[in-house]
Amino acid sequence: MATVSNLALLLVARLAISLYMQEAGAVKFDIRNQCGYTVWAAGLPGGGQQLNQGQTWTVNVPAGTKGARFWGRTGCSFDASGRGTCQTGDCGGQLSCTVSGAVPTTLAEYTLNGSSNQDFYDISLVNGFNVPLSITPTNTQCTAPACKADVNAVCPTELKVDGGCKSACAVFQTDQYCCRGTYVGNCPATTYSMVFKNQCPQAYSYANDDDSSTFVCPSGSTDYVIVFCPSQPIPTHKYIHVYIRLNVE
Ligand SMILES: *[C@@H]1O[C@H](CO)[C@@H](O)[C@H](O)[C@H]1NC(C)=O
Question: Whole-model pTM above 0.70?
Answer without folding.
Answer: yes
